Amino acid sequence: MKLKIAIQKSGRLHDDSVKLLKDCGIDVKNGMNKLKTESDNFPLEIYFLRDDDIPQYVEDAVADIGIVGENVVFEKQKKVTEVEQLGFGKCRLSVAVSRNEQYTGVEYLQGKRIATSYPVILEDFLKARGVTAEIHEISGSVEIAPGIGLADAIVDLVSSGSTLFMNGLKEVDTVLKSQAVLIRNNELAPEKLAILEKLLFRIRSVKKAKNNKYVLLNAPNDRLQEIIGLLPGMKSPTVLPLAESGWSSVHSVLSENEFWDIIEKLKDAGAQGILVVPIEKMIV
Ligand code: ATP
Ligand code: ZN
Predict the structure, then answer these.
(1) Which atom of ligand 1 is found nearest the CA of 52?
(2) Which pTM value belongs to this model?
(3) Domain match, 142 and 84 both
(4) Which of 67, 82, 55 is nearest to 15 (CA)?
(5) Helices 190-210 & 14-23, crossing angle to 10 degrees?
(6) Could you tell me if residue 254 is inside a domain?
(7) For 231-254, what is each residue's pLDDT tens digit?
(8) Ligand 1 residue neighbourhood (C-beta within 6 Å)
(9) Is 35 within a domain?
(10) Whose CA is nearest to atom 20 of ligand 1?
């Protein structure tokens, strides 16, 4: 029994999706320009598809699970379950208008023509805010719509904003924040669920490791307690004596969020020779 996963064939999510599987220790035979491939060291069959089609295939059980942007999941409204946010493919679905326009708030959109590839999400957004507008669905190059007089505003995916800028537009509101997620079919057989659990365990270990760093430092013994007090660690930090008397080596794990803050405090507390090392997997 194998679990069938659908990932994007090519595009912004392809490389990170394959990398996630590889980081999970799953060999993926090179499958570019092929419809599917499989792993020889994990019961997984990998299908390469257009991202827009992935929710439908997962609903229909052509694939058991899939990796796709949350924006696509919300737009397609298929009967699938989101299992895990994956931390890549981050973007926003934003409202943009011509650089010269004065956007006063969502009421600006009342009665306007808005071009988007996300009519379902946009309609919900407007309805929730009591705004009525004309939604023009277009499938690509949404950002040129205002310039050719097709729309007064657009709702499109943005990450850096450079595409908007090049088209004389500015981002003025956020409709949705999105990232890649793992979705699953709602009625997986128990054997497939068991494989999914194994995969999820690995994915979570990889995600946790990415968010954490292994830190080694030298601490003067007279300030050891103060330094240990600054380190949260998995349990308590490892402390080893250095060959030079009066000094100890301290090892611990720090999360990305608190990292810079704590490093500063460690230096102030007299820590020296601080080494920060990436963690490959983290099982807690
Ligand atoms: P396909 O050929 O598979 O239909 P596509 O052209 O529709 O591909 P991509 O542009 O590769 O799709 O984007 C795939 C996903 O990447 C988006 O749905 C979104 O979740 C995410 N993404 C991240 N950043 C951006 C961005 N700046 N613009 C568009 N999508 C982004
Ligand atoms: Zn697409």
Answers:
(1) 4
(2) 0.90
(3) no
(4) 67
(5) 100
(6) yes
(7) 876 677 899 999 999 999 999 999
(8) 8, 11-13, 50-52, 69, 71-72, 89, 91, 157-159, 178
(9) yes
(10) 69
